[in-house]
Design goal:
By secondary structure, the chain is mostly beta strands. The chain has one domain. Helix content is 12%, strand content 40%. It contains 1 helix and 5 strands, in the order βββαββ. The chain has a 5-stranded antiparallel sheet. A hairpin with a 6-residue loop joins strand 2 and strand 3. The longest helix is centred in the middle third of the chain and has 14 residues. The protein is globular, with a radius of gyration of 15 Å.
């Protein structure tokens, strides 16, 4: 469901070690492994150029891990403050920010439908 959510993010895009653009998006997986607990949670921050790559990679990872009954949520986030605009600045400083959840992709299947397919009421 769309809405504002708090999030923790790094100061640089995580999709490529050579990318120093600030992240504008965060993709999150929150799912359960078949027949197991606890829930699996993973997040990746990405700049606009790498958002598609990150979403595809997280969805593929979730399938490989056999995660079901969960969601991959994509947030537009407030870019974190930069410690330095230069590539030599710290890449891994954490900051609290907020994000707008604008898309959710269901992982696994519901009632025989493939992943991501929702019924319309």
């Amino acid at each position: 469901m769309p809405g504002l959510m708090p999030c923790v993010c790094l100061s640089a895009c995580q999709a490529d070690a050579g990318c120093y653009f600030p992240p504008c998006f965060q993709a999150r997986v929150d799912a359960a492994r078949v027949g197991r607990k606890p829930r699996i949670r993973r997040r990746v921050n990405a700049c606009a150029s790498h958002l598609g790559t990150v979403v595809v990679a997280l969805a593929a990872w979730a399938v490989e891990q056999r995660l079901t009954d969960g969601d991959l949520t994509i947030l537009a986030i407030d870019p974190p403050p930069r410690a330095s605009a230069l590539p030599s600045g710290p890449r891994h400083s954490l900051s609290l920010t907020s994000g707008f959840a604008f898309s959710t992709i269901h992982l696994g299947s519901r009632n025989g439908l493939s992943a991501g397919v929702r019924t319309v009421a």
